[in-house]
Design goal:
The protein is of the alpha/beta class and about 325 residues long. Helix content is about 35%, strand content about 15%. It has helices at about 30-40, 55-70, 90-105, 140-155, 170-175, 200-205, 235-245, 250-260, 270-280, 290-295, and strands at about 5, 15, 15-20, 45-50, 80-85, 110-115, 160-165, 185-190, 210-215, 265. The chain has an 8-stranded parallel beta barrel, surrounded by 5 helices. Strand 3, helix 1 and strand 4 (about 45-50) form a beta-alpha-beta unit. It is globular and about 55 Å long.
Length: about 325
């Protein structure tokens, strides 16, 4: 792993800049595969995906291609997958992971996360719905799901385990679980200049849990889950003024901001030029004054609200953080 890595609470290392792969359904899966090949060539070693994204076969092919061509070895890659909400019953957790591994042609993932803290009815459908088109929820104790993730770690199917989209109370629940064997190594959440998650970040740091930022550049309004008509972060005048001063792109500054706060950050693009630009964030520094101005942009604006899940008691976003 490159020197731009953070040591996790279980002793493994995670590159601080990752390549995100979720895409609107109309983006061809082949495009994800080509983008990932480019990203590996550019130097990305941390790759983030999930069972939900439906692109793990393409990701597996891209990784295998780069291994076969001698560009990387398996141990150079830090790959993250996520357990979807229909696999929360303890007996289904390993099955869910093994389904991802088969698609990826990998024998283990580096990090396995609980994708979202709300359980859905088990079965083939990713988003099971009733006749009214409402999601069919399930009730599963997240602590029992966590115990099944611990077993996946012990079986060597996942080197590290963590969570995503959890609020601090939900993290506390796992941390306070009797007989806890492994703490979550990270909590991957939406985090950007307009939702800087400073309270959740402080909480995670206090527990030696890494906060990983998704949607760090805002998000694509074409995505199915996105609240529409939101401000576009990369057009923010303060961000653009700092970028101009630094002679950098607004995206590079937005990514660098997270790195300087101690946040692991995911960058996503399907354009070669931007994939390259987004990787060039290790050779400049934002000043304390820049950081302060960027901190001031926070407005607790959430692009990903997942409102379809809001009727479930475990919906995470009603709490302050």
């Amino acid at each position: 792993m490159s020197h731009f890595s953070v040591k996790l609470n279980d002793g493994h290392f995670m590159p601080v800049l990752g390549f995100g792969t979720s895409a609107p359904s109309k983006v061809a899966k082949s495009k994800v595969e080509e983008a990932l090949k480019t990203a590996i060539d550019v130097g990305y070693r941390h790759i983030d995906s999930a069972y939900l994204y439906g692109n793990e076969e393409e990701i597996g092919r891209a990784i295998q291609n780069k291994i076969a061509n001698g560009i990387v070895k398996r141990e150079d890659i830090f790959y993250t997958s996520k357990l979807w909400s229909t696999f929360f019953h303890p007996k289904l957790v390993q099955t869910g992971l093994e389904m991802s591994l088969r698609k990826l042609q990998l024998s283990y993932v580096d990090l396995f996360l609980i994708h979202f803290p709300v359980a859905l009815k088990p079965g083939e459908e990713l988003l099971p719905q009733d006749t009214d088109g409402k999601l069919i929820f399930d009730t599963v104790d997240i602590c029992s799901t966590w115990e099944a993730l611990e077993k996946c770690k012990e079986a060597g199917l996942a080197k590290s385990i963590g969570v995503s989209n959890f609020n601090f109370k939900q993290l506390q629940k796992i941390l306070n679980k009797p007989g806890l064997k492994y703490k979550p190594v990270c909590n991957q959440v939406e985090c950007h200049l307009y939702l800087n998650q400073s309270k959740l970040l402080d909480f995670c740091k206090s527990k030696d849990i890494v906060l990983t930022a998704y949607a760090a550049l805002g998000s694509d309004p074409k995505k199915e889950w996105i609240s529409k008509n939101n401000s576009v972060i990369l057009e923010d005048p303060v961000l653009n003024a700092i970028a101009e001063k630094q002679q950098r792109t607004p995206a590079q500054v937005a990514l660098r901001y997270q790195l300087q706060r101690g946040v692991v950050v995911l960058a996503k693009s399907f354009t070669e030029k931007r994939i390259r630009e987004n990787f060039q964030v290790f050779d400049f520094q934002l000043t304390p004054e820049d950081m302060k101005r960027l901190d001031g942009l926070n407005r607790n604006l959430r692009y990903f609200q997942y409102t379809d899940f809001a009727d479930h008691p475990d919906y995470p976003f009603f709490d302050e953080y």
